[in-house]
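Subject: for your reference before the review

Hello V.,

The reviewers asked for a structural picture of the protein, and I figured it would be easier to keep everything in one thread rather than splitting it across files. Below is the amino acid sequence we used in the manuscript, unchanged from the supplementary table.
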Amino acid sequence: MDGALIIDKPAGMTSHDVVARVRKIIGARRVGHTGTLDPFATGVLVTLVGRATRLAQFLSGADKEYEAVIRLGYATNTGDVTGSPQAGDALANAREPQNLSKEEIEAAMLSLKRLTEQTPPMYSAKKVGGRKLYEFARRGEQIDRKAVRIQVSEFEPLLKEGPLLKFGDEQTADLQVRVACSAGTYIRGLAEDLGKQLGVGAHLVELRRTRAGQFKIQDASTLEGLAEVSSANSIERALISPDAALAHLPAIEIDDEGVRRILNGIDIPFENSAGLQQNETIRLRDANGNLLAVGVYNDARQLIHPKVVLANVSEARP
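And here is what came back from the structure prediction:
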């Protein structure tokens, strides 16, 4: 059993919990995922099964889309709903969300759409010196973090007409947003930055990933749905082949001699008639369309190096 399963992660579970459940449901030992979601978040979690777990490196950098609810009025120490309200001057001097205009909100969001760097939050799984940042944060330690390059291609209100804000108790207001961004972007960081721009303080209260690369929420199965197809011995209905999971990569057909070399981890000569770029990643298929490996093209040497070989010699020998 090799391929990808797209799971609609429920709230209250870690990504690791979901992987464990998938492993138990389908009876597979090797299951992994391509990008963590916080426990309170829901939505698209791409899991990989069997030999396809080796393909995570080609999927984890995919662009993402989210729908989120940002609560304006105060910030939290974690940047999301799981944290405690931040006390002190930052909260006491904040404006009231009721005084914000639609134009102010849209202008602030537009300014953040141009964001090109972001400092990882202290309450995140980003590692510094081999340890996760949240481990330091829970002990009250602040660690210097390097800003990382990101791209926010879309950051806009979900509601196009009428009032943008839904007002709640204690002088707070909720803003529903849609975000499209590069991998590694922290949506809670965007929420905090929006609050700073508006002078009200803000944190993330809901987060749903609606797309990861080519995989959309419409493609996802709930854990309950996965259990149903598994019990009916129809898991192939949900399983996406390794080749289809890498559909965003160009593919080339390899002749019999090339297949032999690939299966033994040997580089293959390749005249670049396909217009490949230096270090471009490619799907390598046999004459029957079977995915054998994922390779990397070296333009200077005019060859393809098989970076990850999926097929066994017994399965794919010509």
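For the response letter, the relevant points are probably these. The radius of gyration is 23 Å. Residues 15-26 form the longest helix (12 residues).

Happy to draft the paragraph if you're swamped.

O.
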